[in-house]
Amino acid sequence: MIEKSLERINTNSISCQSKKKAIPVYFSTNIAKIKKKLTSANYKFLKALGFKPIYGNWIVLSKNNGKIASVIVGLKRTKKNYSKFLISSILSKLPKGIYFLKNIPKTEDIDELALGFLLSFYSFRDFDKKIKNEKNFGSPVLNLPNFTNLDKTLRLVESEFIVRDLINLPANILNPDYFETYIKKFSNFHNGKIKIVCGNDLKKNFPLIHEVGKASSKKPRFIEFTHKGPSKSFNITLIGKGVCFDSGGLNLKSSTGMLNMKKDMSGAASVLGLAHYLIRSNLKLNIRVLIPCVENSVSEKSFRPGDILISRSGIGVEVKNTDAEGRLILADTLTYATEINTDILVTFASLTGAARVAMGTDITPFFSTSNDFANLLKKNGDKMQDPVWQLPFYEDYNNELLSTMTDLNNAPLGGMAGAITAALFLKKFTNNHKMFLHFDIYGWNTKSRPAKTYGGLMQGVRSLGASIEEKYQFHIKNHVQL
Length: 482
Ligand SMILES: [Zn+2]
What we know:
- Helix content is 34%, strand content 20%.
- Strand 12 (308-310) and strand 13 form a beta hairpin.
- By secondary structure, the protein is of the alpha/beta class.
- The strands form four sheets. Strands 7, 8, 9, 10, 11, 14, 15, 16 and 18 form a nine-stranded mixed β-sheet that branches.
- It is elongated, with a radius of gyration of 25 Å.
- The chain folds into two domains: 10-145, 3-Layer(aba) Sandwich (Leucine Aminopeptidase, subunit E, domain 1), CATH 3.40.220.10; 152-478, Aminopeptidase.
- It starts with a helix and ends with a helix.
- It has 16 helices and 20 strands.
- The structure holds zinc ion (ZN).
- Residues 246, 248, 296, 323, 325-326 line the site of zinc ion (ZN).
């Protein structure tokens, strides 16, 4: 549950108070320039090794008594492309001790360095017995006396660990029953309120969620978590796709396509992570998190290709493919969301393979009805090491969504512009909301990289969190509505 994710963070890993006895870390592009800072023996040792201060090369030097004297980290860039968070990940690998960054150049971003350092300690080995027997030699502590953003960085790391943990849990554990319990506990943790709709109420009021989830023994449900701000707060609605496992339904996925489908609730995980960040940031916000929670399974109760479903809004949908289930459960949720006033309406969903084909695993495409907000998101995406890119709600592609039987089809044939047609499908259910944002996330890291372990990954949340904060500050200052 949420506490377990928070326990993974060693909040003492960064210390902002000056420590006299901290071990110096020297950053260098030219060893001769730091010669004076080292003992003659240490300098000769570097020469003997032929140590080159190339970006990412590092070495620990010792005193005569065997204790650590200093650390040298190379910063000289060659033509090679370097991963984000490389330096912070190196610092996280240092032996136990307190380290002071002696001559960090202005070109290095301290926010990024601190975030990457804390993220580097994440691991998800909860089911691995061997890990319990491994000896823990202790972790390094970074001494950053002038760092003023520690609280914010810790909030970002908390959110990310919550999101990663949720995505990493296998579907035999994180099923709709478990997810409901988790969100109830999440709500208690934040003093929020929770509402669950299931059974006949779900069938009647959220027919598409019922249809998608009815084949599973773990019943489908609609989960609403609300957290109230002070009076006259802005209203933010965050919707996350909560497909705990996506087999594809009767349009069964291939073996490789199904392999990581425990991550099909990464949209739901992301909005919980974002809610956690915003609540912890104490902004004047009314936050509503809506999660349609299902397992897309195969049984005699499965919905079928060719079925015609009538949504909560009354719009009819012809099912062309049962694997395009995300947009169905989100459609009813969006209708519900816009039945009361909300200033910002957001969906996070691992929705289309087309988004991956267009952008790869790292860049999150998003759609926005506000170009101003889109520009803010892109700017913050770069600043927060969380790259996002705007794709258009290109209205002419609405033709692809037509059906010969009813109003819409859920999976246009040919699959061209699949991320855009999926976003246009969702937009039909937003009641023309003026501030609608949709993130088509991947939620997964395919290989271990600095500060990013293999597996669940939070995407789009840091850029959106920062943008909401910025917009909110602006509007508070100018006394205008969002
Ligand atoms: Zn699917």
